[in-house]
Design a protein that fits this description.
With 767 residues, this protein is α+β, with helices and mostly antiparallel strands. Among the domains are: 107 residues, glycosyl hydrolase (family 31) (Immunoglobulin-like), CATH 2.60.40.1760; 326 residues, TIM Barrel, CATH 3.20.20; 78 residues, Golgi alpha-mannosidase II (Immunoglobulin-like, Sandwich), CATH 2.60.40. Helices cover 21% and strands 27% of the residues. It contains 17 helices and 45 strands. It has a nine-stranded parallel beta sheet. α12 links the parallel β28 and β29. α8 crosses α11 and α13 packs parallel to α14. The radius of gyration is 26 Å and the shape is globular. Bound molecules: alpha-D-glucopyranose (GLC). GO terms for molecular function: carbohydrate binding; hydrolase activity, hydrolyzing O-glycosyl compounds. Pfam families: DUF5110, Gal_mutarotas_2, Glyco_hydro_31_2nd, Glyco_hydro_31_3rd.
Length: 767
C-alpha cells in the first residue's frame, strides 16, 4: 500500500501524492473545498466521487447554493514532516503511509492519523463468536478487524463524538461501534443496535478546544468504531468503494454543522401546517373509522393539521390505488377533511405488487424500471402486497416516472407523502447484494445502492410534488442517507411504547439534527406495544417540542389518540398541543434558521454550551432553538425532575421564577408539568391557539417578553410555496431592553401583521 512518501504534484487545485509501495497508480489526493472543508480521496474504483449526498458540484441541484465557492489552497510545500497544505484556517500535513494530520491555524492538532498498534485482540474471534451463537449470544458482538477501505484516526481523552444520524443509545457515541446499512428490524430497539433505518456517515468530534467533523461519503456498507476497539483511536471502514471523506474544521460544533450542511444541503422551509399536530394509526381500517378520528379531534378541541392514511387506504396495498371497498371514494373523505382544516398524508411504499393488468406494475415492466437479478430477470421479493418488485430509483428516468405518478395523489387532494419500507424492507430475506440497480448512468449492485434507495425515492417524490404543486413538498421518509434532508423530513420508525424509547427519543432526535436531518420526530406514544396513560402524557410533552409531531401506533396495540386515556391525559394532551400551536412562529423561525445556517430545530444542550462539561452527555434535556430549554420527565412514576441549567439567567416558563444557571435542582413535575426554561432577555413569538393552521389569517403576533436584554430575528412568509426565495417575506428585528420592546422591519416583501401584541411574562412581577 502507501509506504514512504516520495513526492506530490498539484493538478486542478488538487494535491496528489506519490508513495513507495504497490497501489496500482491510485494516487491519493487532498482537495481544499473551503478554508475549513478538506476532501481526502483515494479513487480505488476509478469512478471518481459519485456522491449522492453532495449534489451541487455535479448537478447544481441544491436550491440553497448556486455552486461551490472553491476553497483556496493558500500554499503547498514539503519538509521532513511531509507535504504541508495550508488554507486560511487549517494546515494539513500528509506524511508516510498516507497519514493525514489536521491542525488549526495556530498549529494546534485538530485530528491526527492513528500511528500506534491497534488492539484487535480485544475483539471477539470468529470461533468464540460461533461458540456464543449456540445460545444466541452473538447478536451484540462483532469481529473487529481491518476493512478493505479504512481510516484509523486518533482520539484524545476528552473527545466526545456526536452525530452518526439515526442511532440508538445515548448522545455521546464514544466507545460504541455502529454500522451504516439501512435496516428494518422490528424488534424493540436497544442501545446496542448497530443499525437502524437511516445511514448518515457523519460524525462530529468535540474536543477540549475546537471541534471537527468527518463525513465519510461512501454509501456502501460502512463501519464506525468510535473507540470501542481501542480507547485512543476510531476506525472508519467500508466493504467497497472509495476512501472519500470530508474533514470539517470548526471552532465549535455549530461551525461543523454549518459546513456539513453547506456540503450536503440544508433542510428547507416546510409548509407551516406541517409543524402542526399529526394524528395517525396503522390502521384505521375504514373510511368510517378515519372519519371518526377527525370528528374526535374536533370534538375534543384538539388542534390538528393532518391525519395520516396508512396502508389500508390502498387496494390490496397497491401503490397509487384506492381501496374503494373500505375507504369508498378517496377524494370525498379528503375534501371533507379539508373542510375541517385537516390535511391528508398518504403512505407510499416502494414495493409494487406483481399483478398482470395493474397499471403501475405494467408500466414499470414495459419500461424496465424495476431492479433485476444479475441474469436480467425482474427481481421479486415480498412486501405488504405479496410478491412485489422494486423501482430502480437510482435511474433518473424511474425517478421522473415515480414523480409523475404522484399526480394520482395530488388529484385526490392529498397534501404530502409518507415514504415507508424504503430501506428497502423485504419479507423473504434481504435483497441479495448482487441485485442490479442503476446509479444514475451506470448499473450498480444492491450493495452499493442499498443505503441510497430511500434517498433516491425521497428525491423522486420531492421533485414530482414540487413540479405538480409548486408548493414546498411535504415528504416523510423512514430510510435515508446523508443529504436526504434536502428532499425529505423523517421519523424514527417503529419504536415501542416503553419508557426506554421515550428516553431514547431525545438523543436520537438531537443527533439526527446534528447530522443535517432537522425535521424529525418519533412516533409519539410509541408504535409497537401498548401505551399507558402516564407514558402518553410524558411523550406528548416531548413530542410537542419535536420538529415532526405525530401520534402513531401499530395495529393490534391499544388505541392511542389523546382521548383514549381518560380525561386527565386528554387535558394534558390538549395543554401541550395548544402550546405547540402557540409556539408555531418560534418553530417556524427555527426552520428558517435551519435553511440558512443548518442549525437544527431541536438541539442537544452541548450544541449551545460546548464548554460546559455537564452537558456533554446530557440525554434527558434538550433545547428548542437557543432560547427554550426543555427538561421533560422520562421516568415512570416520577413527579419531580432533576434539572440542570447551564450558565446564565433563566426563567421558569410556568411560574416566572428566576434561576441563576450553572446549577442542578429538583423541579416538581406532576403529570401535567413538563419543566421548561426560557433564557433571560428572550422574546418568544407566539400565535393564538387555533384548531389548525390557516383557521385565521395569522394576523396577530404575540411577543412574549422575558426580563433581561436581548434581540430576536423574526421571519414571516406565506408558509406555503417558494415565493420567499424571490423575496416574498418579512423579517423583523426585535429588541428587548428589559421589557421595553422595539420592533424594526428589516425586510419587507409580504403582508404585515395586523397587530403585534407585547406581553410581559410572569418573571417581571417576581423580580
Ligand atoms: C411500517 C412503518 C409503520 C407503518 C407500518 C404499516 O412498520 O414503520 O409506521 O405503520 O409499516 O404501514
Amino acid at each position: 500500500m502507501f509506504e514512504k512518501l516520495k513526492g506530490y504534484h498539484v493538478e486542478d487545485g488538487k494535491v496528489y501524492f506519490r508513495y513507495e509501495g504497490d497501489y496500482e497508480g491510485k494516487e491519493p489526493c487532498v482537495e481544499v473545498i473551503s478554508d475549513t472543508i478538506i476532501n481526502v480521496f483515494v479513487d480505488y474504483t476509478g469512478l471518481g466521487h459519485r456522491s449522492r449526498a453532495i449534489e451541487w458540484e455535479r448537478q447544481g441541484q441544491n436550491d440553497t447554493k448556486e455552486g461551490a465557492e472553491k476553497g483556496k489552497l493558500e500554499s503547498v510545500s514539503q519538509d521532513e514532516s511531509g507535504v504541508i497544505i495550508k488554507t486560511k484556517k487549517v494546515t494539513i500535513i500528509v506524511g508516510d503511509n498516507f497519514h493525514v494530520d489536521f491542525y488549526d491555524h495556530e498549529g494546534m492538532p485538530l485530528s491526527l492519523a492513528h500511528r500506534g498498534e491497534r488492539k484487535k485482540n480485544a475483539a471477539l474471534s470468529a470461533s468464540l463468536l460461533a461458540f456464543l451463537a449456540k445460545e444466541g449470544h452473538a447478536a451484540s458482538g462483532s469481529i473487529i478487524g481491518d476493512y478493505p477501505i479504512q481510516e484509523v484516526r486518533s482520539l484524545e481523552d476528552k473527545d466526545c463524538i456526536y452525530g452518526l444520524g439515526d442511532k440508538t443509545g445515548f448522545l455521546n457515541k464514544r466507545h460504541y461501534a455502529y454500522e451504516m446499512w439501512n435496516t428494518d428490524n422490528p424488534n424493540p430497539q436497544e442501545d446496542n443496535f448497530k443499525v437502524l433505518y437511516k445511514s448518515i456517515p457523519f460524525m462530529l468530534v468535540l474536543k477540549e478546544k475546537g471541534a471537527y467533523g468527518i463525513f465519510f461519503d461512501n454509501h456502501g456498507k460502512t463501519y464506525f468504531d468510535m473507540g470501542k476497539e481501542g480507547e485512543d483511536y476510531y476506525v472508519l471502514g467500508a466493504d467497497e468503494g472509495n476512501l472519500d471523506y470530508y474533514f470539517i474544521a470548526g471552532e465549535n460544533l455549530k461551525d461543523v454543522v454549518t459546513d456539513y450542511t453547506y456540503l450536503t444541503g440544508r433542510a428547507p422551509m416546510q409548509q407551516l401546517w406541517t409543524l402542526g399536530f399529526h394524528q395517525s394509526r396503522w390502521g384505521y381500517e375504514s373510511e368510517e373509522e378515519i372519519r371518526g378520528i377527525a370528528k374526535g379531534l374536533r370534538e375534543h378541541e384538539l388542534p390538528c393539521d393532518c391525519i395520516h392514511f396508512d396502508i389500508d387506504y390502498m387496494d390490496h396495498y397497491k401503490v397509487f390505488t384506492w381501496n374503494k371497498e373500505t375507504y369508498q371514494d378517496g377524494g370525498k373523505v379528503i375534501s371533507d377533511f379539508k373542510d375541517m382544516g385537516i390535511k391528508s398524508v398518504t403512505i407510499m411504499d416502494p414495493g409494487v405488487k406483481v399483478e398482470e393488468g395493474y397499471y403501475v406494475y405494467e408500466e414499470g415492466m414495459k419500461n424496465g424500471y424495476f431492479a433485476k437479478t444479475p441474469k436480467g430477470e425482474v427481481y421479486v421479493n415480498e412486501v405488504w402486497p405479496g410478491d412485489a418488485v422494486f423501482p430502480d430509483f437510482g435511474n433518473p428516468k424511474v425517478r421522473k416516472w415515480w414523480g409523475e405518478k404522484q399526480k394520482y395523489l395530488v388529484d385526490l387532494g392529498v397534501a404530502g407523502v409518507w415514504n415507508d419500507m424504503n430501506e428497502p424492507a423485504s419479507f423473504r430475506g434481504p435483497l441479495p447484494n448482487d441485485i442490479v440497480f442503476t446509479d444514475e448512468d451506470m448499473p450498480a449492485p444492491h450493495s452499493q445502492m442499498h443505503n441510497v434507495y430511500g434517498h433516491n425515492m425521497a428525491k423522486a417524490t420531492y421533485e414530482g410534488w414540487r413540479e405538480l404543486t409548486g408548493k414546498r413538498p411535504f415528504v416523510i421518509t423512514r430510510a435515508c442517507y446523508g443529504g436526504s434532508q434536502k428532499y425529505t423530513t423523517g421519523w424514527t420508525g417503529d419504536n415501542h411504547s416503553i419508557w426506554a424509547h421515550l428516553r431514547m427519543a431525545i438523543p436520537q432526535l438531537c443527533n439526527m439534527g446534528l447530522s443535517g436531518m432537522s425535521f424529525v420526530g418519533t412516533d409519539v406514544g410509541g408504535f409497537g406495544s401498548d401505551c399507558t396513560p402516564e407514558l402518553f402524557a410524558r411523550w406528548i410533552q416531548i413530542g410537542c417540542f419535536s420538529p415532526f409531531f405525530r401520534d402513531h401506533c401499530a395495529k393490534g396495540c391499544r388505541m392511542q389518540e389523546p382521548w383514549q386515556f381518560g380525561p386527565e391525559v386528554l387535558a394534558i394532551s390538549r395543554k401541550y398541543i395548544n402550546l405547540r400551536y402557540e409556539l408555531l412562529p418560534y418553530i417556524y423561525d427555527l426552520m428558517h434558521e435551519c435553511e440558512t445556517s443548518g442549525m437544527p430545530i431541536m438541539r442537544p444542550l452541548v450544541l449551545e454550551y460546548d464548554k460546559d462539561e455537564n452537558v456533554k452527555n446530557r440525554n434527558d434535556e434538550f433545547m428548542l432553538g437557543d432560547r427554550i430549554l426543555v427538561a421533560p420527565v422520562v421516568e415512570q412514576g416520577a413527579k419531580e425532575k432533576l434539572v440542570y441549567l447551564p450558565k446564565g439567567v433563566w426563567y421558569d416558563y410556568w411560574t416566572g421564577e428566576k434561576i441563576e444557571g450553572n446549577c442542578s435542582f429538583v423541579r416538581t413535575a406532576p403529570l401535567d408539568v413538563c419543566p421548561i426554561y426560557v433564557k433571560a432577555g428572550a422574546v418568544i413569538p407566539k400565535y393564538p391557539v387555533r384548531m389548525h393552521v390557516g383557521e385565521d389569517k395569522d394576523d396577530l403576533l404575540i411577543l412574549e417578553v422575558y426580563p433581561g436584554e436581548g434581540t430576536y430575528a423574526h421571519y414571516q412568509d406565506n408558509g406555503e410555496d417558494f415565493a420567499y426565495r424571490q423575496g416574498a417575506y418579512n423579517t423583523y428585528q426585535i429588541h428587548n431592553l428589559n421589557g421595553q420592546v422595539e420592533v424594526f422591519k428589516q425586510h419587507e416583501g409580504y403582508r404585515d401583521y395586523e397587530k403585534i401584541k407585547v406581553e410581559m411574562t410572569a418573571g417581571f412581577q417576581k423580580k
